[in-house]
Design goal:
Blueprint lengths: L2 H15 L4 H7 L2 H9 L11 E7 L2 E8 L1 E3 L4 E2 L6 E2 L5 H13 L9 H4 L12 H6 L21 H9 L16 H15 L3 H13 L5 E2 L14 E4 L2 E4 L14 E3 L1 H10 L8 H7 L12 E5 L2 E10 L2 E8 L4 E7 L7 H11 L2
Antiparallel strand pairs: 1-2, 1-13, 3-4, 5-9, 6-9, 7-8, 10-11, 11-12, 12-13
Helix pairs in contact: 3-12, 4-8, 7-8
């Protein structure tokens, strides 16, 4: 990383924090910076898709680093304010929206799909909101129900309609864990039906705007735009190919949010407070049920610490977030390339900052 890129990151931090914490940031970001750059050397070429990473500790972004290109065709470098498609990291926002409606008394976790959705067939009488959040509904993957020659993009409602045409599930709801994008697409539809607002608008008014996440958006082509956008690519033996969108890119509830490491900092810090949800609701989200999953988060033990984490993988993007609440440590790695898996990278970064 060049000196000028370093300076740019520090300027961005200063702007975000409005000054008072800048001295703390600079003091904390010393030796690990060099090791951080070494970890991301494969993402640092200016003519290749790259990465953005933030390390948050005790309420301070102690490191913000950006590497590579956000838009190769236009020669635009990745910066701290670059917005990446979160893919499945979006699920934590969908789960939060649902829990907001639960706290308002507008939804109940044990309500069934036939109670909530008039068009859902009878087998939905055994599937609850809780099952959707925890990935134990057994719903068929909507991706496997799409026609082989389908060339457009499906929406959350399309995903609902595809499974509503079925008459069965993979297993009896509540008996097994199977990760389900279908469940989170339906949750987005429920946010719309119950709130009376489009899902993207609900997130904007109830999460993004209150937290000052001014450049975060549940992106809808032709309706919204993504400022400072990173485009997705595939890098392989054939070179670099644009793979930014796919037929499932318009589904929002399971993965349609774009954000930057700077905006995510604001979200991360809000999770230590009751600004969005009560502590009781947050703890419910962070309590695993089947396997290691709660509501929108994976939960396990990492070297003696409770760890909240999640991956995000979609056409042209690969991301990972790790939170260690008892250390108030968060690492977010965003990349605009389809591979490789960046969980090992995120864990390596955690090792630099975990006591």
């Amino acid at each position: 990383m060049s000196a000028s890129r370093n300076d740019g990151a520090k300027i961005a931090i200063a702007a975000m924090l409005a000054g008072p914490l800048l001295a703390t940031v600079v003091a904390c970001a010393r030796q690990p910076d060099r090791q951080l750059d070494e970890l991301f050397v494969d993402y640092s070429a200016s003519d290749r898709p790259g990465a953005s990473v933030i390390v948050i500790k005790q309420g301070v972004p102690v490191a913000i680093r950006s590497y590579g290109s956000a838009d190769i065709e236009r020669g635009i470098a990745i910066k701290p304010e670059t917005n990446f498609r979160l893919a499945s990291i979006s699920k934590q926002f969908t789960a939060t929206a649902i829990m907001m409606l639960v706290e308002r008394g507008e939804l109940q976790l044990d309500s069934t799909l036939t109670e909530l959705l008039d068009e859902f067939p009878d087998y939905g009488s055994n599937i609850t909101l809780r099952h959707l959040l925890q990935h134990n509904s057994g719903l068929i993957d909507y991706e496997f129900l799409m026609a082989d020659d389908f060339s457009g993009q499906v929406s959350d409602l399309d995903a609902l309609n595809l499974v509503a045409e079925r008459d069965s599930t993979y297993f009896d709801p509540g008996t097994e864990f199977r990760y389900s994008n279908t469940g989170y697409a339906i949750l987005a539809v429920l946010v719309e039906r119950v709130s009376g607002q489009p899902y993207a608008e609900f997130l904007e008014q109830n999460i993004f705007e209150p937290l000052g996440m001014d450049n975060t958006v549940a992106y809808q082509k032709g309706i919204s735009t993504v400022a400072n956008r990173a485009y997705g690519y595939t890098v392989d033996e054939q070179g670099v190919r644009d793979t930014d969108q796919s037929s499932t890119s318009a589904v929002l509830g399971d993965g349609g949010i774009y954000t930057s490491v700077l905006d995510y900092f604001k979200w991360d810090q809000a999770l230590y407070t009751d600004r969005l949800l009560s502590r009781a609701s947050l703890e419910q989200m962070w309590t695993p049920n089947f396997g290691d999953y709660g509501f929108g988060w994976r939960i396990d033990n990492y070297k003696g610490h409770k760890r909240l984490h999640h991956d995000g993988e979609t056409s042209g993007f690969r991301n990972y977030v790790i939170r260690i609440p008892d250390e108030q440590l968060t690492v977010l790695v965003l990349t605009n390339r389809s591979a490789p898996d960046v969980k090992p990278l995120a864990e390596a970064v955690v090792e630099l900052y975990l006591p």
